[in-house]
Every structure is written in structure tokens, then in C-alpha cells.
Amino acid sequence: MDIEILVKLTARAWTLNILASLDAGTPGRQAPLLAATGAGRTAFAQSLSHLFDLNLLERNPGHGHPLRPEFRLTPEGVRIAAIAGRIVKAGARDEDAPLLRRAWTVPVLAACQRPRFFGEIRAQLAPVTDRALSQSLKQLQAHHWLQRHTDTDRHPPRPSYLAANEGLIIARAAG
Where is the HTH hxlR-type domain (predicted)? Predict the structure, then answer.
């Protein structure tokens, strides 16, 4: 998947889970999707609205009550939902779910499929701030999804980052 689309997609916490649930066959109504994702109502509504804005989701015409609409994936949404399903399955452990829902986790992992310096990652993920990228790198390292290697032969020493373990599996699923 294109890194720009991945950045836009992961801007809301539950978008990957909603798409993965729809890809897995969950009915496109709010109650089954809420139950399948485990999201809170407000965050769910924001993520659903975000998917509409990205033209990945639409109301299913002629189905559902006006107060209980039914949703379906657009043709582009079907393609992206399959990728979201692979990403969610790759980070399937319950203790990994909160980190996987963070905005920059998947884009950073996708950018680090080969060794990258901080500046290279920041350039590839254009809207990320230095602070957000730094925090994401630290969290991913602490979770062992990212390895940091410092090249001490250079002056000054420069650390590089590489996706590892489950992080590499997630990065490849997003790729």
C-alpha cells in the first residue's frame, strides 16, 4: 500500500479494525461492527466518518433504517480492507492491539522495512512531527517491533531503525 494512503488511513484509531471486520464478513451495521471492533461509540463514529471521507466506505442504498444505516465498502475500500485484514491479523495478540491502533505505528513500520535513518523516515512520512516520530520509534523499540542500530564508525554516530519480529510481519502485510 502507498505510504501516503497508509498515513491517512491510520489517522483514526479504529479504521484498520473496521475495515478488517468488514473484510472478514461482519455485517455492515453499526452494532455488529462496534461489537467486532470493541471500539467506544465516539471513537468508532470518528473512524467511520474518516472512512467515508477517504471514500473507502459508503451507505448501502436501499438497506437499513435511516437511524440504523447499513454500510458497504467501495471498490477501493475492498482492496484496502484486504490489506487492513492482513495487518490486523499480523498484530493479532490482545496486548499488541493498543500499539497497533496508534496513528504512526503502521506507517513507521512500513517505512522501516530496510534500515532507515531518522531523517529518512521523517521525509517519507511527511506530516509527522519530530516528537511524534521519536515517541513512536521508542514505543516500537520497547515492544521489540523495531531494532535500533547505532553506527559508531561514523562521527557523530547515527542510529538506524529496522522493523523486526512482529513489526516486520506487520510492515510486510502493509506493503
Answer: 103-167
